[in-house]
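pasting input
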Amino acid sequence: MPDNTKKIVIIGATSAIAHACARLWALGAAEFFLVGRDPEKLRQAAEDLTVRGAGQVATYVLDANELAKHPAMLARCFETLGRIDIALIAHGTLPDQAACEQDVNLALQEFSSNGLSVIALLTLLANRMEAQGSGTLAVISSVAGDRGRPSNYLYGTAKAAVTTFCEGLRGRLYKAGVHVITIKPGFVDTPMTQGLPLPKLLVASPEAVAKSICQAIEKRTNTLYTPAFWWAIMLVIKHIPTFIFKRARL
Amino acid sequence: MVTVSSWGRLSRLEHQVKVLSARHQVAAQLPSDQLGLVYGMGRSYGDACLNPGGVLWNTQGLNRFIRFDEDTGRLVCEAGVLLRDIQQLFVPRGWILPVTPGTQLITVGGAIANDVHGKNHHQLGSFGDHIHWLKLIRTDGTMIDCSPDVQPDWFAATIGGLGLTGVITEAQIQLRRIPGPWLVAETFPYHSLTDFFHWADSSEAAWEHTVSWIDCLHGGTARGLFMRANPIPSAPRISPASRKLAMPFVPPISLVNKISLPLFNNAYFYLKKRQPEPQIVHYENFFYPLDNLLNWNRMYGPTGFFQYQSVLPRSVGLEATQAMLAEIARCGEGSFLAVLKTFGEREALGMMSFPQPGVTLALDFPNKGERTLRLFARLDAIVQEAEGRLYLAKDARMPRDLFVAGYPRLNEFIHYRDPGISSALSRRLIGD
Ligand SMILES: Cc1cc2nc3c(=O)[nH]c(=O)nc-3n(C[C@H](O)[C@H](O)[C@H](O)COP(=O)(O)OP(=O)(O)OC[C@H]3O[C@@H](n4cnc5c(N)ncnc54)[C@H](O)[C@@H]3O)c2cc1C
Ligand SMILES: NC(=O)c1ccc[n+]([C@@H]2O[C@H](COP(=O)([O-])OP(=O)(O)OC[C@H]3O[C@@H](n4cnc5c(N)ncnc54)[C@H](OP(=O)(O)O)[C@@H]3O)[C@@H](O)[C@H]2O)c1
């Protein structure tokens, strides 16, 4: 009998966007390995998915910045799930740019949360999945990585690193039958953006973004701008000449 | 600070919004030097969910399910879960919320805090009747687990307690078995209130859901459409149209006016009146017809609208309702959203719950300032004379004496208030 159950690992599983994706997957046959740093939030996420119809839901507490602990986590993950059909990397922080300009340690810490830790995880996951010969690596980057803006270029730099890393990895894993999707959300209404004065019309719900992410994973899209109109916005922004861009208040 | 309105869009005032996103962190988030209030989906029409100048704790992030027992139908969930999410997940599994109001786009917390009722009040009472227990967090950090048996006084204060006793973070709800998502529904035109009461009385024993649409312009003689429905097992193989229409902008003037209203009411009455035999309808279309028109509240234009919902004891229900309808027809105000329904004999659990035995009339009115308020004053007099009450979830203007007369357990209730919580409604009607 073919096993149609999706085996899914989520890093940063307590993220609002990631949890909204997990809820959609839970409606079909799915088993989860949820990784996050807050045990209580992880437990609550697991309970919610269970009520919504998920099969086994395992949790694992890990701070993504503790790179040395990644291999043990992944070993446990493969032990639990057997194989990985979808790995969603969703954790991230929105750094205080002004503070990062004054404090090198803070800047590097934030760069690690949004960039290095993702690259570290992808490196290990890639080898495992290459050997497995199937599955999808879904990585949440950001439109902020498309161009450096004074208001958040540290975050943008880390996301740009992730985007470029994924592009290279996609080409490498293509041959092994493993797909890599780079997800670039625009503004999403989540705890990360709480209290920010964002233009209301441009802010999407985590549910809407999750729906497009799940569809894009099915369709094996390479790069997803979500909501889709961000593709057009970023096309324009990417083409603004530097002599103008550097004067703009962005 | 951001501006927040309730469903009636009568005001746009500044609030400091704090999102609650994890139930184990709520206690730490509440303390503040400002007074706060919980905000669910803001589907209350008046000022029950507003606290201008103060803090609003938005429960949108408290939207997790916690446990479900397939054998007993008991669901534990966080207070920000939408009734829609419960229905969409559980109806396909054969379970449904026993009581839901005319919209499913509200939170569990809001449904408890207004002890909302549906079309089946005569059989199943109100939302609070199906809560096994709830968890309340007070602004001083105290946590109270209460139920009809444990700390029953706190339970009775919080069911229908308008968010004033603390923040509900989770609750256990009793779901009900259903054979499927379908109902069989019948519609009958009525041409007098006597007729209406006849249909209501003769339907209540055998029909779970009863409700009626009433033409508010027809005066004391009253005409309308009486509807009744029961769940049925048969499953036609069509799914409800999920396409949603939206009111994309606020028109400069109300679309509900002296020209459109009589036209609509006549057309609606004559179209539906000829409805043939019993119809099979999907529960979403029967219970929540307005949810398919997103933001329909914008149609009343920039000044917003009121809803006036009263309940009158059955003994005087007929004459008093007649008198109210005559007043309304006389000034030609109102809207096509007008509902007349009987409540069952069951007394509500909550100290401040709205439902009581009798007949309830709910009508929307575009806000035309003084003119509308003068009409309400005349309706108030009828309600007070009849010893009825107005629904706080809908109210933005009732006078204090009508409130005090209508809610005799107020003095008992105020002992359970949380001193860190206040709403525009509590300041208007209770004084703080
Ligand atoms: C189209 C439509 C049809 C309706 N039909 C009906 C009907 O048939 N029957 C009926 O009874 N009502 C009806 N209503 C009214 C609606 O059901 C109530 O106003 C309901 O309380 C709204 O819930 P909400 O989540 O939007 O809460 P809000 O309106 O945001 O808040 C309502 C109250 O609940 C409190 N509250 C919310 N969450 C919590 C919490 N977690 N802890 C403590 N207090 C809390 C708030 O402080 C406030 O006092 C209808 C409303 C609309 C828009
Ligand atoms: N929201 C937006 O507008 C937006 C736009 C573009 C891209 N994104 C990206 O989308 C992803 C999801 O974010 P979100 O919007 O859903 O916000 P969110 O709900 O705040 O989620 C971020 C998650 O990352 C977790 N996290 C942060 N640092 C971690 C670490 N060192 N180890 C483990 N977990 C860590 C957080 O855990 P805790 O719960 O324990 O804090 C939180 O669950 C992020 O990568 C973000 O950069 C978001």
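fyi The pocket of flavin-adenine dinucleotide (ligand 1) is lined by residues B 7, 37-44, 48-49, 59, 79, 101-103, 106-107, 109-111, 113-114, 116-118, 162-163, 167-168, 290, 393, 423 (CB under 6 Å).
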